[in-house]
Amino acid sequence: MEKAERSLRFMVDKWLVMAPAMSVRVTRGSRARSNQRRCVCLEASLSTGAFAIYFFRQGDGTWGVFPPDAPDAERSVMSVF
User: What is the DSSP string of 33-81?
Assistant: First the structure.
């Protein structure tokens, strides 16, 4: 897949198909100091409720919804509360 097809804008459009009744905002952006990994959290609000989705920058510069592979000691972890 080409890098343009894995840009943050492309992935947001793919995962959060914009509808007139939806508003989306960035609620968190971070960069780990030790390994310079980046992630962005977007929150979408619908009339039925809100949800959030995290996007992670991969080692090749593309973005995805899964954390990049890393040695076990540095592996990112996602949790649901």
Answer: TTT--EEEEEEEEETTEEEEEEEEE-TTS-EESSPPP--GGG-------
Q: How far apart are CA 77 and CA 67, in angstroms?
A: 8
Cα–Cα dist 53/34, whole Å: 23
- What whole-number distance in Å separates Cα of residue 59 and Cα of residue 52? 23
Q: Give per-residue pLDDT as tens, 39-58.
A: 899 888 887 888 888 898 88
Closest to 56 in 3D by CA, of 73, 45, 69: 69
Other C-beta atoms lying within 10 Å of the C-beta of residue 6? 16
d(CA 2, CA 62): 9
| Residue 11 CB neighbour total at 10 angstroms | 20
pTM above 0.85, yes or no: no
